[in-house]
Design goal:
- It is a single chain.
- 18% of the residues lie in helices and 30% in strands.
- It has six helices and 15 strands.
- The strands form three sheets. Strands 2, 3, 4, 5, 7, 10, 11, 12 and 14 form a nine-stranded mixed sheet that branches. The protein has a four-stranded mixed sheet with strand order 6-1-13-15.
Length: 269
């Protein structure tokens, strides 16, 4: 007996109702969950391992790239509404770690998606997405040994006094491997009794960056595009070693922070 395609489709839906959500994902592996936002790298050759990119006609190899985002919110009917991240090894309810380095030698440890705990209907109603690049004060200066993942990632931690690295980018000149360049953004001017003690008040330069991205209503399948070269605009990589927990008064650090605040380094794809 011939079974018509629409009968098969209805049967699959009926089966899906009998199983858990994960079982449905197995039946329909390409279906994206509402609130899942992939963050793709632009102007970076992600097909190579390690990844490479060209800046000012020079090829650079990416040794490490990761950054924290926190406190996600959506704007609905003119009002900001807090939402939470889905908790997993890369996210707490308030904090997420995006991590792109390196996937060579079978090491696939990395995260390139934000997963917000939001329904399709809520995402369709939203007109803006807002979050912070960086960590809130409490999470930033807490003991990483007792914090949940991803706040216990030692590669993204500087000290109890300064806290975590909000952004960590380490690269080297592909033609001259000894020439390295790093950008480690975090709070600066944090006062405490020692580097092993957290501060009791906000640091002089918190260096958190607020991102507000417009959203098209009725569209819930969203992808973000991130350009590392735009992050590094107007910075001569061959004339400095980068910026590692220095104040914006340093010309290189100041330019990098201006890029984060005023250039379209992160936008919808």
């Amino acid at each position: 007996m011939e079974i018509l395609p629409n009968v098969i489709s209805r049967a699959a839906v009926s089966v899906c109702l009998l199983f858990t959500l994960s079982a449905c994902d197995t039946l329909f592996p390409d279906k994206r969950m509402a609130g899942t936002i992939p963050v793709h790298l632009k102007h970076v050759d992600t097909a190579t391992c390690p990844m490479t990119m060209k800046i000012n006609d020079t090829d650079w190899t990416v040794d490490y790239f990761g950054f924290y985002v926190s406190n996600p919110e959506v704007r609905i009917d003119g009002k900001w509404q807090p939402v939470s991240f889905i908790q997993n090894e890369w996210q707490t309810s308030k904090v997420a770690l995006l991590k792109y380095h390196p996937s060579c030698g079978g090491n696939k440890a990395g995260n390139t998606k934000l997963k917000i705990n939001a329904s399709e209907k809520l995402m369709q109603l939203a007109t803006n997405l807002r979050f912070m690049v960086g960590l809130p004060f409490a999470e930033n200066h807490a003991n990483p040994l007792t914090q949940p993942s991803p706040l216990n990632d030692s590669t993204m931690f500087w000290s109890w006094q300064a806290g975590h690295k909000f952004i960590r980018l380490d690269i080297h000149n592909s033609q001259q491997p000894s020439q390295t360049w790093s950008y480690h953004l975090g709070s600066v001017g944090c006062e405490s009794e020692s580097a092993m003690r957290p501060p009791e008040k906000a640091c002089k330069f918190t260096n958190r960056v607020e991102m507000i991205l417009p959203m098209t209503q009725l569209d819930w399948e969203l992808d973000l595009s991130l350009s590392v070269p735009v992050m590094l605009s107007q910075v001569n990589l061959t004339q400095s070693e980068g910026c590692m927990f220095e104040s914006p008064e340093n010309p290189v650090c100041g330019q990098l922070l201006k890029n984060l605040l005023h250039r379209p380094w992160l936008d919808w794809q």
